[in-house]
Amino acid sequence: MEEKALEEIGLTKSEIKVYLALLELGPSTTGPIITSSKTADSKIYEVLEKLANKGLASSFLKGGLKHYKAASPSMILEYLREKKKRVEEEEASVVKILPSLLSLEKQAAEEKEASLFTGARGVKTPFSGIVEELKKGEEVHIMGIYEFGKQFLRAVQLFHKNRSEKGVKAKILINSGAIETAKGLSSYSPVEIRFMPKDIFTPAVFLIYNDKVVISLGDEFTMFVIKSKSAAKAFNSYFEVMWESASLKPR
């Protein structure tokens, strides 16, 4: 029950196991944590750091050894509040850039339109549109993937499954911290994945194909679809610059 609830709010399975182990053990060195959570030695520090970044764990020195302890379960509510605040800030950022995107150089023969899709069902429409409009061998460029919550991740996985089955290629730029998501998406060929520099974190996910740009707020279940050749061209140019500076492994 606890694991399912924690997974629903966006914690990975590894983070959940380590957090629950910390709650049961109390302040502890990594040895007992590894044993209790059944986490690999090579992964334990990475998982503990992620929990610390989310405010759910901390560390201190005792007897010359580094110990770790879980934050109070009440901090989970604080984590959710911070997550909600980040989503609101991301949405505000997208709202700010929408006018400039829509005011890009007009082309006389170009048809332009913008649409908004919300909710778990609503966001399926832009995803389906990409698969339907692209032919086998054509590409969609995706930028800004991060560790999604469980519900939105299912929608993303379904999209990539359908894309893969049709033979549509994806070139994906992923935020450096989204290692688990990258592993999952790598199975949906044809696909190329690169990691953006650690100091770059996009405020939303951008999907560019044909003459369209899809801006997704991820776990907020909100998507903007802009139909504009000039906008798609501008975003693709930026994507290519970022692609050249990206790496095959997080850095």
Descriptive report:
The chain is α+β, with helices and mostly antiparallel strands and 251 residues long. It folds into 2 domains: 2-73, Winged helix-like DNA-binding domain superfamily/Winged helix DNA-binding domain (Arc Repressor Mutant, subunit A, Orthogonal Bundle); 80-245, Endonuclease Chain A (Endonuclease, Chain A, 2-Layer Sandwich), CATH 3.30.870. It contains 10 helices and 9 strands. It has helices spanning 2-8, 13-25, 30-37, 41-53, 75-102, 119-122, 124-133, 150-166, 179-185, 229-245; strands at 57-62, 65-70, 113-118, 139-145, 169-174, 191-195, 205-209, 212-216, 222-227. Helix 2 (13-25) packs across helix 3 (30-37) and helix 7 packs parallel to helix 8.
Question: How do the strands line up in the largest sheet?
Answer: 3-9-8-7-4-5-6
Supply the CATH architecture of the largest domain.
2-Layer Sandwich
Strand content: 15-25%
Largest sheet: 7 strands, mixed
Write the layout of secondary structure elements.
Elements: H1 2-8, H2 13-25, H3 30-37, H4 41-53, E1 57-62, E2 65-70, H5 75-102, E3 113-118, H6 119-122, H7 124-133, E4 139-145, H8 150-166, E5 169-174, H9 179-185, E6 191-195, E7 205-209, E8 212-216, E9 222-227, H10 229-245
Helix pairs in contact: 2-3, 2-4, 7-8
For the structure shown, list the relevant keywords:
alpha+beta; 9 strands; 7-stranded mixed β-sheet; elongated; 251 residues; Arc Repressor Mutant, subunit A; 2 domains; Endonuclease, Chain A
